């Protein structure tokens, strides 16, 4: 007798917000003698991040293994607003300087 609901259960991983260590439920944690297959939520209360000793409250659920959150991929998008070439930037800078110089000279000439 086996329970298929248990066998197909995918355990969530939890990532340490302090150091980036990810607890893998499938692997357990040898430092604290946590058996493989132990969910993060069933870790003993004295369990700490094996890397930086952060408490379990410092961990966030990052989902099951192999499932990307998609957050990292989205970081590179949305930054395409300012795509001026160096030449265009120089034109803007020197054009602005030249305009300021002309303005200055015209004011100077009025005196
Ligand atoms: Zn940590």
Reading the helices and strands in chain order gives HEEEHH
- DSSP helical segment count: 3
Major sheet details: 3 strands, antiparallel
Q: Structural class, please?
A: alpha+beta
Tell me the fraction of residues in β-strands, as a range.
Answer: 5-15%
User: In order across it, which strands form the biggest sheet?
Assistant: 2-1-3
Radius of gyration: 29 Å
Basic shape: rod-shaped
> Which residues sit in consecutive blocks of at least 5 with pLDDT less than 50?
68-79
Based on the model shown, name its key terms.
111 residues, three-stranded antiparallel beta sheet, 3 helices, 12% strand
Topology:
Elements: H1 4-7, E1 12-16, E2 22-23, E3 59-64, H2 71-74, H3 86-110
Antiparallel strand pairs: 1-2, 1-3
